[in-house]
């Protein structure tokens, strides 16, 4: 991505990528996807992760073939962590095709533009990957905002 590419981005600036290593190694399509999600969401978002070098990906316990290492993924979180803000972000992202889409119990989502037709969906609660279901989604959101209800048994094997 170049600084000129940001002329077509409504809700993010090049400066927002500075604290996470810059925008130069980020795929323009994932930024446009994040921009559409941000527009649908209607509130500011924080970009918490973008391109990761393989060593950093390992240090952050990222997936072995993480799309972050190819510059094709972003992690986003709302500026406020409550049910309305986090749930609203999840719902806004669900309205857009993300080739990869993960919901995490620490209050962030993962979006990516991996080259696939089928796509990948997951919910992560306390570091365990769960099947994509509305029950597990609700548990991840509850967990993110501080509720410690017992977790379901929809673990992915």
Rg measurement, Å: 15 Å
Distance linking N and C termini: 36 Å
Can you write the helix and strand succession as a string? HEHEHEEEEH
Q: Low-confidence runs (pLDDT<50, min 5 residues)?
A: none
Helix content: 25-40%
Write the layout of secondary structure elements.
Layout: H1 28-41, E1 45-49, H2 54-59, E2 73-78, H3 83-94, E3 100-104, E4 109-112, E5 120-125, E6 128-130, H4 134-144
Parallel strand pairs: 3-5
Antiparallel strand pairs: 1-2, 2-4, 3-4, 5-6
Describe this structure in words.
The protein is α+β, with helices and mostly antiparallel strands. Strands 1-2-4-3-5-6 form a six-stranded mixed sheet, with helices on one face. A hairpin with a 4-residue loop joins strand 3 and strand 4 (109-112). The model has no long low-confidence stretch (mean pLDDT 89). Helix 1 (28-41) packs across helix 3. It is built from four helices and six strands, in the order αβαβαββββα.
């Amino acid at each position: 991505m170049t600084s000129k590419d940001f002329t077509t981005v409504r809700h993010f600036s090049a400066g927002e990528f500075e604290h996470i290593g810059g925008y130069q190694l980020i795929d323009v399509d994932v930024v446009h996807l994040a921009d559409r999600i941000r527009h649908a969401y209607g509130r500011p978002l924080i970009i918490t992760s973008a391109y990761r070098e393989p060593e950093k990906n390992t240090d952050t316990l990222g997936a072995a073939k993480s799309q972050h290492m190819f510059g094709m993924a972003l992690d986003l979180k709302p500026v406020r962590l409550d049910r309305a803000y986090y749930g609203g972000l999840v719902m806004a992202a669900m309205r857009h095709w993300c080739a990869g889409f993960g919901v995490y119990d620490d209050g962030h989502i993962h979006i990516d533009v991996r080259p696939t037709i089928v796509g990948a969906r997951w919910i992560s609660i306390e570091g365990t990957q769960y099947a994509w279901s509305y029950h597990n989604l609700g548990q991840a959101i509850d967990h993110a905002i501080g509720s410690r209800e017992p977790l379901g048994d929809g673990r992915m094997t």
